[in-house]
Amino acid sequence: MLIIWGIAVLMGVLTVVLLLGKGSFLIAGYNTSGKEEKKEYNEKRLCRVMGGGMGVITLMLIGWGVMGEKFPVSVFVIVTIVTVILIQVLSSTICRAQVNDGGEQKKETSRDRIYRRASFIFSAVILAGVTFVLFTGHVTPVLHEDSLEIQVSYWSDNEVAYRSIRSVAYMEDLQRGSRKGGIGGPTLQAGHFKNAEFGDYMLYSYTSCDSFVVLDTEQGTVVLNGKDKAATKELYEELLEKVGES
Question: Dihedrals φ, ψ of 225, to 5°?
Fold first, then answer.
């Protein structure tokens, strides 16, 4: 959490600077533009738009720091992407200088329109992709004759031989702990996790289900579940039978 708070403080300082209409040298792309290109933008307005966007992300980071592991990271990702899209749209519209040196209204060129539309489409595609990954996916336990195969979306599958399983337990309201590597969102939680009860362990679970099957294996602890309590309970009973036969 110290890293989160450190980033939040840094971004908070930059947010204040930009909202004051200063710090244009911090804006990537604009700070390397030539004088003629810079004339096409209202510098103070551009700074404030960037500052507003950074302010939103800073508030999200503060929320993350306060809530810790309970913070919905998926919300942070989506809000950040939406904020970036808004910054791109506003920087290419209301931040454009309205008049040229002769006092005449500046017209948007075809090049400007293509750039603005391409930026919007690119950002929209990224947002759609991230949203799809966060809100879809499955955990599919496949019980073979000699092993359990755990198939999971967007993460590597795992296969556990029945003979390597020391015990099978059914648990509810397990604290998943912190993710050391893997995926986490409103649909799936999968990968390398660590909690006070098991230490380092492997998790393959649906986020909405608070029932779990815990496997104590020769390779370490493996935790998984079904879409709901009934599916998890059924999986537990099937594994008990398989492990008992091995």
Answer: -155, 175
Which residue, among 229, 223, 217, 181, has the nearest Cα to 205 in the 3D structure? 223
- What span, in angstroms and rounded, lies between the C-alpha atoms of 215 and 60? 36
Residue 96 bridge partners (DSSP): 41
Question: Are the C-beta atoms of 78 and 56 separated by less than 8 Å?
Answer: no
- What single-letter DSSP state applies at residue 92? T
Contact 152, 206 (CB under 8 A): no
What is the identity of the amino acid at 76? F
Would you state the structure tokens that stand for residue 49, as one six-digit string? 């738009």
Instruction: Give pLDDT tens digits for 179-188.
Output: 888 888 888 9
Q: Cβ contacts of residue 241 below 8 Å, gap of 6+?
A: none
Tell which wins on pLDDT, 219 or 64: 219
- Which residues are bridge partners to 7 per DSSP? none
For residue 72, give the DSSP letter: -
For every residue of 140-187, which 3-state class applies, written as one string? EEEECCCEEEEEECCCCCEEEEHHHEEEEEEEECCCCCEEEEEEECCC
Helix (H) or strand (E) holding 118: helix 110-135
Q: How far apart are CA 221 and CA 181, in angstroms?
A: 15
Residue range 123-145, pLDDT digits in tens: 677 777 777 877 889 999 999 99
Give the position of tokens 């496949």. Answer: 142
